[in-house]
Amino acid sequence: MREVEEILRYFPNAIYTLLRATLMQNRNLINDLLEIRIRVGRVILLKTRQADILIEYQISSSEILQIIEKLCDNSIYAYKNQICDGFLTIQGGHRIGITGTAVMEQGKVLNLKYITSLNFRIAREVINCSNHLLKDIIDLENNSIFNTLIVSPPGKGKTTMLRDIIRNISNGIQEISFKGMTCGVVDERGEIAAMYKGMPQNDIGIRTDVIENINKAKGIKMLIRSMAPEVIACDEIGSKEDIQAIRRSCNSRSKRDFYCTWKNNGRYKK
What we know:
By secondary structure, the chain is of the alpha/beta class. It has nine helices and 15 strands. The protein has a six-stranded antiparallel sheet with strand order 3-2-1-6-5-4. It has a five-stranded parallel sheet with strand order 9-15-14-10-13, with helices on both faces. It has a two-stranded antiparallel sheet with strand order 7-8. Helix 8 (216-227) runs parallel beside helix 9 (240-252).
């Protein structure tokens, strides 16, 4: 329930009361809930693993604006860059997708106005979910890891798996005599560590340093220069710039292994 409460508090009272009552009537729904989608002039949609549940309540544009203001701590301008990227990340690592009318200049999004839809994606920490994969990732002979790439369609738990792998590598695993390694995380979208006022809200291990809200190319370079990581982890590798950054980091290292997860609907292009 904690993850859901972290999201519900951003809704106006009438919507909060309605959503909470719906969830409390069916406790199993709380664990199965993946997304809360709201659209101006249309019903609320709760997306679960099994089905979509419709709640008969039409969202107004003023309610959307209230939610956005709460998400941005009443300072929308301070979150303008994230809004232009089409999402906001809040405490707990939950991501809110945003759509509306884009204001463009020279091919770049300067702003989103008349916001019409919000998609609250619920992030859940699943401790030990990666245990069955560790035998394919950890190089026990050298107390290191193999360069590893996770590929799957959207919504299959790549980030959740990545987070737990980082925790295991960082802490070390006494049962197999694996010593912990210094990990550097480039958390471009704030979903891995879920930093809140400088503190990670998720367990990413005792030997992990995080740099967030920065593109992977710059973040990787900064970590290598300043924190000497033995492992670098990042999420959603999908552009040529991301791939080039990985290649440069591999060429500049002596013992650093690179661990990343890539998301591009299962297709890889060089």
